[in-house]
Amino acid sequence: MAKSSKSSKPGSSPPSTARSSATRGEGIGIKYSDKSGGQPGLALVFDEIKKLMIPYSKGSLVLKGGTDGQVALITNKPVVIEGRKRDELWFVSMLVQKGYVGFYYMPVYMNEPVRRQLKPELLKMLKGKACFHIKNTDPPILAQIEEALRIGYDAYKKMGWI
Q1: Where do the DSSP E strands lie in 76-161?
Q2: For residues 106 and 64, what is the distance between their CA atoms, to the nearest angstrom?
Q3: Which of 28, 57, 100, 141 could hold 64 in an S-S bridge, CB 3.0 to 4.6 Å?
Q4: Is the CB of residue 137 less than 8 Å from the CB of residue 103?
């Protein structure tokens, strides 16, 4: 059986070519035009969440992408996590998928105290370790995403990651 050539999900370790292009500032290096191009109804969801992400593009956090249904906030500050040196660390990313916008929120993956601070309504949308399936621009959910960004930013800052 042939191996799949699909890229890994944003927020997880991207392939080495994607990582190096992100480090060089050339975008996030992941192509999903086959999914995002056919999802015009999700463009509003993507745009609204992206607006919430933009204020965090400061200091070592850099906004990558933003078009073609993909965007990420990545820090290029070298950090050590559990004894392993990382040249970059993903904070959040977003990707238009088929039927939902994937909001990849890495602070929930690495930090149980962060997870406990999130509201149950938002946690119901968590479909993996760090991926929230967002399907509409429900104001209470957008407010909870905004709060999650603040909580995650504060957690990363406290750990010296940004």
Answers
A1: 79-81, 84-86, 89-96, 101-105, 131-134
A2: 16
A3: 28
A4: no
Distance from C-alpha of 46 to C-alpha of 134, rounded to nearest angstrom: 9
Residue entry with tokens 């004894």: 83
Q: Do 68 and 94 form a contact (C-beta atoms < 8 A)? A: no
For the chain, the average pLDDT equals 80
For 121, phi then psi, to 5°, come to: -60, -40
Task: Please state whether beta strands 101-105 and 79-81 pair in parallel, antiparallel, or not at all (unpaired).
Answer: unpaired
d(CA 43, CA 17): 27
Q: Kindly state the tokens that stand for 45.
A: 């969801």
Question: 98-157 pLDDT, tens per residue?
Answer: 889 999 999 998 688 999 999 999 999 999 899 999 999 999 999 999 999 999 999 999
Name the pTM for this structure: 0.76
Asked whether the predicted pLDDT for residue 49 surpasses 50, the reply is yes
Query: In whole angstroms, what is the distance from residue 94 CA to residue 71 CA?
Result: 5
Question: Which residues, including other chains, have CB under 8 Å from residue 70's CB and lie 6 or more apart?
Answer: 10, 28, 30, 32, 36, 93, 94, 95, 96
Q: Long-range contact list for 116-123, CB < 8 A, 24+ apart?
A: 117/151, 118/144, 118/147, 118/148, 118/151, 119/144, 119/147, 122/148
